[in-house]
Structures are given as C-alpha cells and as structure tokens.
Design a protein that fits this description.
With 71 residues, the protein is mainly α. The protein has one domain (4-56). It contains two helices and two strands, in the order αββα. It has helices at residues 4-20, 38-56; strands spanning 24-26, 32-34. It has a two-stranded antiparallel ribbon with strand order 1-2. Strand 1 and strand 2 form a beta hairpin.
Length: 71
Amino acid sequence: MATLAELTAYRDKLKRARYSGTRRVRDQNGEEIEFKSDSEMAKALAALEAEISNASVRRSSIIRFQTSKGV
C-alpha cells in the first residue's frame, strides 16, 4: 500500500504528463506506463483522487455504548 505522500506525488506527476500531452509516465519503481487515451488518464487520476481521499479520512477512535435493561 502506498503512502499518502507517494499517492499525491504520483497524482501530480500524472497531472503534469496529462497537461503537457505526454502519454507515458514512469513510476517510482522505474516501470513505464503508457496510456492509450486522455480518457484513460482521466480515469487513472480519478482513481488516485479516490485513494487519496480514502487515505486522508481520519477514523474515529471513540465508541460510545448506550445500554438499557429493556424495562
């Protein structure tokens, strides 16, 4: 699982490539990814945005119980 910083860095790199008209992006592992169309890049960006928003959501650590005797 990638960290939040890695996800945002990859998103920024993908945005730069998309806006410059480049269809190839090299990730941190050295793998090169070539997108077939702009819509494919847009889907990848949307997926990254979703992952970033899920990773940045703060989980609640407080649980409150409400009990009764049923009377």
